[in-house]
Specification:
The longest helix has 15 residues, at about 90-105. By secondary structure, the chain is an alpha+beta fold. The chain has a seven-stranded mixed beta sheet. The chain contains five helices and seven strands; from the N terminus they run E-H-H-H-E-E-E-H-E-H-E-E. It has helices at about 10-25, 30-40, 45-50, 90-105, 120-125, and strands at about 1-5, 50-55, 60-70, 75-80, 110-115, 130-135, 140-150. The radius of gyration is 15 Å and the shape is globular. It has a single domain, classed as 3-Layer(aba) Sandwich (Aminopeptidase), CATH 3.40.630. Helix 1 runs antiparallel to helix 2 (about 30-40). About 25% of the residues are buried.
Length: about 150
């Protein structure tokens, strides 16, 4: 049965594994992924500074998302599904859970950047592409910026 809960320090290894494998899913090379691991490893400090939730199926973590709230806006810091669950509808289910959480925290709009391969998913979820920025991992790579208006 699908459920969700606030992430805690016991989840860190699994969250980092899911994030790394899901990012690698898009075909990035070893150098890129090494920098990704260095820059984007989730730690206890990050959990204290964000609203990070895991989606579970019979208590097994399927994916997770992290939000940082700034007034009525939030930044979507992470949104990752286990690689073996990509294409199975779990992304849509976690998206819906994330929107519920956003509404609980009175978030009116959500902003984020993502890998180019994720464009179809976020577009299908009703998000608007609002531009592109240079990747913090490889500045020569331009990555899309998105916005989703909740209210």
């Amino acid at each position: 049965m699908l459920d969700y809960k606030k992430a805690d320090s016991k989840d860190l290894n699994q969250l980092n594994k899911i994030a790394y494998e899901s990012e690698a899913y898009w075909g990035y090379d070893e150098t890129f992924m090494g920098i990704f691991k260095e820059k984007y490893t989730i730690d206890e400090e990050f959990l204290r500074q964000s609203e990070t939730f895991v989606m579970t199926d019979d208590e097994e973590i399927i994916g997770f998302f992290s939000l940082k709230k700034h007034g009525l806006e939030a930044t979507l810091e992470y949104f990752y599904i286990r690689v073996d669950q990509i294409g199975c509808g779990m992304g849509r289910k976690m998206w819906d859970l994330m929107l519920e959480v956003c509404l609980m925290f009175d978030v009116e709009s959500l902003n984020w950047v993502t890998s180019p391969g994720a464009i179809p998913f976020y577009t299908k979820m009703g998000s608007s592409r609002v531009g592109e920025v240079s990747s913090t991992i490889d500045p020569s790579l331009k990555i899309p910026a998105f916005k989703f208006q909740l209210k």
